[in-house]
Amino acid sequence: MRRVPTAALIGALLALLTLARLPSAWASGNALNHVSGAWMALADDLAHGLLYRPVRDPALGFGGTRFFPLTFALEAVLFRAGLPLVVAGQLLALAAGLSAALGAAHFLRRAGHTLPAAAGLGALPLAGFAGQLGLASARGDLPAAALSIWGLSCLLPDPRRPGARTVGKGGIAAVLFVLAFLAKPTALAAAAAGTAFLWRSGERGPAVRLTMRVAVGCALALAAVDVLSAGRFHELLGGLGTGGAHLAGLVHAPLRLAEVMVREDPAGLVLLAAAGSALLGRHPSAAARSPALLLASLWLASSLATVLAVLASPGTGVNHLLELEAAAALLAGSALSPPRTRLAGPGGLSRLVSAAAALAAAVSLFTSAAAWRRDRAGSRIAEAREALDAAREGAPAPLLSEDPLVPLLGGERPFALDAWMLRIEADRDPTVAAALVERLRSGGFRAVVLLRAVDAPDAEEWFSHELGSAALAEIRQRWRPALAVGPYHVYRFAEAGPPSERLP
Fold it and tell me: CB 72: neighbour CB atoms within 10 A?
């Protein structure tokens, strides 16, 4: 009987701990930051019949996003079915997390692992902080990663059926890759890895067919979304798709990646170290004997390229590391599968990869336990409700909140969909900034809810990315603090003036 790797045993413990802590994470909502609120606001708009609101709308307020629709469309369906928005997002995240773990286990079974080992190692894609965050934060990263893992797994041959062809499953893989793209465009890294894998494996025809299917599928999907949104989708991507990225940001992206991983995601960093050990110690003929090792290596390379491109955009963060860490987990897991001769010098290097993968799972155990303690000690949802209560009284005017979750908890349509995208659009179009400033100047909101105090030491830096410096100056001059609770700071208008019913 084959020995189950230590990493698999710790991975099984991680899976159990994660499932145990999720109820507290969901109840507290501590992982639901303003980005999660933007996803939910998009779902709320769609549930009301609007796919992608305009950047500036007289009735709704300000829009603007570069999020792709699959995840929030599914949330909207669950919302229309009667689930609260927060519950819908969390339920979808749980389904995506379970799917990612099952997909990873299927991939590792194709790599040659026994069922118990594959099941334990299947938790490793969620071992990093990015994966743990995705399980509780209701965003599009985890569904995209889950679909990517399953798409790649469909391309692997089954070691229990020697000689069986898998290229017939290329159509299924193409569908999964297109769906992953509709959840998050950077998921095309998996499709690129799949094509390169087929090509390197001598399956040139299937590689070309996979590329064509994915390209046609993505093009048709984009066209359909654009038609359903009355052309707003391509307008948003054209203006906001880069997220403010620039050449200098691309040059500094490797440093940003290292900084984010060291500061926020040490478990993910150890996972990458395990994958790096496997790559350095790979036997020259390993790719021929282990298709899974080759495929995971290609996905690691392609996802690293996309992560660096994403981190060139200011305001992006640790959640974008999920696909990279999932690829690293699959690579490390594939390297640990028998025969051990896939690693040159199997004794030392195999133990190194196994130890690094086990350490990553162990670090994640401590991270998960710490998050559980925080979730039991406080609740962001409770703080958001308290901020909402403080902002209820006043003239019948909209609520301007950096975090759309606050008005959503009160059953309101958020006036600002995404404060980050609003600032980017304001930089491009001065009339957008002028409209917001004029409304702040005239007291056109019953309250303003910010995620930083306007006199905080880092206020200038924060609001240079969120809402904008002009809005900060106006709030400092005419609005006064009413309440500070958790991350929320509620401000009320301090100068007389009738609330504006519509945007200028």
Answer: 32
Cα–Cα distance measured from residue 326 to residue 128, given in angstroms and rounded to the nearest whole number: 9
Q: Where are the alpha helices (DSSP H) in 281-418?
A: 286-289, 291-311, 322-335, 346-377, 380-390, 405-409
The alpha carbon torsion through 25, 64, 313, 485 (nearest 10 deg) reads -40
Eight-state DSSP code of residue 48: T
- Which residues are within 8 A (CB) of 97 and not within 5 positions of it... i.e. 6 or more apart? 126, 131, 134, 135, 142, 146
- How far apart CA 236 and CA 54 sit, in angstroms, is 8
- Cβ 71 vs Cβ 140: under 8 Å: yes
Assess whether the previous peptide bond of 339 is cis (omega < 30° from 0): yes
Token pair in block for residue 491: 């401000």
For residue 398, the 8-state DSSP code is -
How many Å is the Cα radius of gyration of the chain?
A: 24
Helices (H) and strands (E) in the chain, counts: 23, 6
Which strands sit side by side in the sheet containing 479-485, from one edge to the other?
A: 399-401, 447-450, 488-493, 479-485
Confidence of residue 430 (pLDDT cuts 50, 70, 90): confident
Q: Which helix (H) or strand (E) holds 482?
A: strand 479-485
pLDDT tens per residue across span 247-301: 777 888 899 999 999 999 998 998 998 888 888 766 555 555 689 999 999 999 9
Q: Are 439 and 500 in contact (CB under 8 A)?
A: yes
3-state DSSP: the chain helix, strand, coil percent, rounded to 5? 65, 5, 25
Reported as type and span, the H/E element at residue 208 is helix 204-228
